[in-house]
Amino acid sequence: MKDPNGFQSDIIAAASGFSNTAKKGSLLLRLIRASQPITRTEIANRLEIDKSTVTENVKPLIAAGILREETVEADLSRGQGRKPRALSFVDDQDYFIGVNLGVRTSQVGLTTLHGEIIEEDDFVTPTDIKRTLQMARERIENLIAKNADKNLRVIGVSVPGLTDTERRELVYAPNANWRNVKIAEAFNILPDVRVVVENDATAAAMYEARMKIRHSTDGLLSNFILVRSGTGIGVGLVIGSEVYRGTGLGRGIAGEFGHMTIIAGGKPCVCGNRGCWEKYASAASAASLYTGDRPLRPSETMPRFVEIVSKAENGEIRAQRTLEKVGDYLGIGIANVIMGIGIPRVIISGRLVYGWKFIKEPLYEAINRSIVGKLEGWSVEAGEPAGAAIGGALEVAIEDYLANGLNV
């Protein structure tokens, strides 16, 4: 949607004024969004720049009505003094829509620049991709109609597979058997609203990167590997607080570790390989580990991951052992990924988070058996479940908006 106030030049100027340091310039808006309300002093400290530089760059944004600066309550424990003024986004009229197309379930939601998920609608994903897109589009149209007095800025879509270099199409989703799907075209409802398509693991990594910026107290740049486990396994890479997608022909395929072999001649995978990591360490793999790969009895259905977690929490030994096996296999793969990439910090996202207390210890034990375990400084932690679902898709929309000068 076109911006009638002509904010683009102000944003571009603001995003490039940190002593020719592009990295710090690009992080200005992200830092404000993740930590709002935030003072100029805190911005200067965390970006390691002069406060005058912050002032120079936020002034046009305040004048343009993009940012507001208001007095906040001072910390009384620090004594009397002038109440600080803090920056935050003005988002009274702007909103974003996210669509998470999952193999089993899909979500459509709405947020603002403050980041709260205001509305969310879930539905079971049909096997027919055309029907899936139709159901998602109906929900998008409903949200647009309900917010007709506001400005939809970007639609972000997370998908369970590879995307094209333009981030408009789903190239291949092996677990759903979707190929060459024109996602952006299907959701092109308003002509001036950009539709951005992103791999779901990368989307989850974007979400976790914002969480890390929000909670960081000593600087801003961070590197981590995100392992998203659901029906399959995807890996997102964050380097210097920015997601990495690969370059050239490799763009969009960076992080596809779910299909690396961890057991030679193991279980057949939908990708055509055998022994893929996701056949043993995904949330979906827990069901076959629980049943022992035996044929289902009449009227019996495969247990869902949350059901296995519930059984484990209620003391069922078989469920607990199943989650421990998942943790062991997960640790084997994570050790390989850490050794291959050289980033020692890992965040787990997706349904596995719900079973973390059963998965954590065997995962650590598996890593400790590897070379990684002989080194100092590695860590694996559970992330936020929302990042693997609608939260990641919404993050895709907002990140694109900020990266394109708050003007689409």
What does this structure look like?
The protein is of the alpha/beta class. The protein has three domains: 8-89, Arc Repressor Mutant, subunit A (Orthogonal Bundle); 94-205 and 389-403, ATPase, nucleotide binding domain (Nucleotidyltransferase, domain 5), CATH 3.30.420; 217-384, ATPase, nucleotide binding domain (Nucleotidyltransferase, domain 5, 2-Layer Sandwich), CATH 3.30.420.40. The chain has helices at 8-14, 22-35, 40-47, 51-63, 129-146, 183-186, 200-215, 278-281, 285-291, 305-313, 317-341, 356-369, 390-403, and strands spanning 38-39, 67-71, 85-89, 94-100, 105-111, 117-124, 151-159, 162-163, 170-173, 178-181, 194-199, 224-229, 233-239, 242-244, 345-350, 379-382. The strands form four sheets. Strands 6-5-4-7-11 form a five-stranded mixed beta sheet. Helix 2 crosses helix 7 (200-215), helix 3 (40-47) crosses helix 4 (51-63) and helix 10 packs across helix 11 (317-341). The radius of gyration is 22 Å and the shape is globular. The chain starts with 7 loop residues before the first helix and ends in a 5-residue tail after the last helix. Mean pLDDT is 86; it is low at 1-22.
How many domains is the backbone divided into? Answer: 3
The level of helicity is 25-40%
Determine the strand fraction and express it as a percent band.
Answer: 15-25%
Output the strand order for the largest sheet: 6-5-4-7-11
Which parts are unreliable, with pLDDT below 50 for 5 consecutive residues or more? 1-22
**Arithmetic mean of pLDDT:** 86
Biggest sheet layout: 5 strands, mixed
